[in-house]
Automatic annotation (TrEMBL):
Protein's GO biological process: phosphorelay signal transduction system
Name recorded for this polypeptide: Response regulator receiver domain-containing protein
Ranges where the Response regulatory domain occurs: 5-120
Keyword Phosphoprotein applies: yes
One Pfam family matching this protein: Response_reg
Upper taxonomic lineage: Bacteria, Pseudomonadati, Bacteroidota, Cytophagia, Cytophagales
Length: 120
């Protein structure tokens, strides 16, 4: 069975710890790679693949929307999910209208949220 590759782009290190703990409950346990800066995540994805990308929209330097636009140019096959502490209605509509983004979830993510993402 293939080990899922997960990339998490979030500038909140506490989220990294929480998500690592949640992902450790899966069998097989996914290979999780964390980034705090979008440019580093993009550099990684130029050389590596990810089956799933969890993305915070509010990032320093390059925000989540800019990241998504750059990600589309790479023609990645990974499922993209938006994570946010709060999503305003305008952003919610943009997320729902973008077929590249498979879903949105509010932080903190539950184990059930992650199971839904993994099965999507």
């Amino acid at each position: 069975m293939k080990i899922p590759q997960v990339l998490i782009l979030d500038d909140d290190r506490i989220q990294h710890i929480l998500l690592q703990k949640r992902f450790s409950q899966f069998e097989p346990q996914p290979q999780v790679t964390f980034f705090e800066r979008a440019v580093f995540a993009l550099d990684f994805l130029k050389e590596n693949s990810a089956d799933m990308i969890l993305l915070d929209l509010n990032l320093p330097e390059m925000d989540g929307w800019e990241f998504v636009n750059e990600l589309k140019k790479l023609e990645t096959k990974g499922k993209v999910f938006v994570l946010s502490g709060s999503i305003d209605p305008k952003e919610k509509n943009l997320i729902n209208e973008d077929p590249f983004i498979k879903g949105q979830f509010e932080k903190p993510l539950s184990q059930l949220d992650l199971e839904m993402m993994m099965e999507h």
